[in-house]
Automatic annotation (TrEMBL):
This is TetR/AcrR family transcriptional regulator. Pfam families: TetR_N (PF00440). Residues 32-51 bind DNA. Residues 9-69 form the HTH tetR-type domain. Signal peptide: none annotated. GO terms for molecular function: DNA binding. Keywords: DNA-binding, Transcription, Transcription regulation. The keyword DNA-binding applies. It comes from the Bacteria.
């Protein structure tokens, strides 16, 4: 790869990483192309050298943001080898995760956009949901029954919902309580399994 091609690839990757962070922070409609390109240190005029359209950029950045979350969830599950689901729950429902949406789980921030989005967005979102369900199932007792799948769905839904609500409420105590209570209840139900 020539120097100019390598620089173009690096610039494109930088725009994608910045956009992935910004859509986790602000959603899909807020970041404008000119603003994103400026933050990447590029001119607005160079945008079409990298992407076919704003929708193209948003879809690719959303897929990147979603995939990034999978790595973090896998790492969280591996932190507590004795009880991997507990490690996953503790990491996901932490104040650190709540307070850092730009690097947090995109399943939380992109749910509404995926619901209104096209097939490409829905497929990327579904891929991550399926991946998270598989990971959560793996952190259980190894059972691959319908009951284990239902338990994984309940766990993921509770974690995503609690994180979403904890970011959305104005009362800091309620925000903390949402995270703590849901984490405690999920871990308690995991211990019973």
């Amino acid at each position: 790869m020539g120097h100019s091609q390598a620089a173009k690839t690096e610039s494109r990757e930088r725009v994608l990483r910045i956009t992935a962070r910004r859509i986790r922070e602000e959603g899909m409609t807020r970041p404008g192309v000119a603003d994103l390109m400026k933050e990447a240190g590029l001119t607005h005029g160079g945008f079409y050298k990298h992407f076919a359209s704003r929708d193209d950029l948003m879809n690719q950045a959303a897929a990147l943001a979603l995939a990034d979350g999978e790595t973090k969830m896998t790492e969280a599950a591996r932190r507590n080898l004795e009880e991997p689901r507990t490690g996953l729950i503790d990491d996901y429902l932490s104040t650190r995760h709540r307070d850092a949406p730009g690097t947090g789980c995109a399943v939380v921030t992109l749910g509404a956009a995926a619901g209104r989005g096209g097939a490409e967005m829905k497929e990327a979102y579904e891929k991550q949901v399926q991946s998270y369900l598989a990971l959560i199932s793996e952190t259980g007792d190894g059972d691959d029954s319908d009951e284990a799948q239902a338990d994984a769905m309940l766990t993921l839904s509770a974690m995503v919902g609690a994180l979403l609500m904890s970011r959305a409420v104005a009362d800091p105590q309620l925000s903390d309580q949402l995270l703590q209570t849901v984490a405690e209840r999920l871990k308690r139900s995991t211990a019973k399994v």
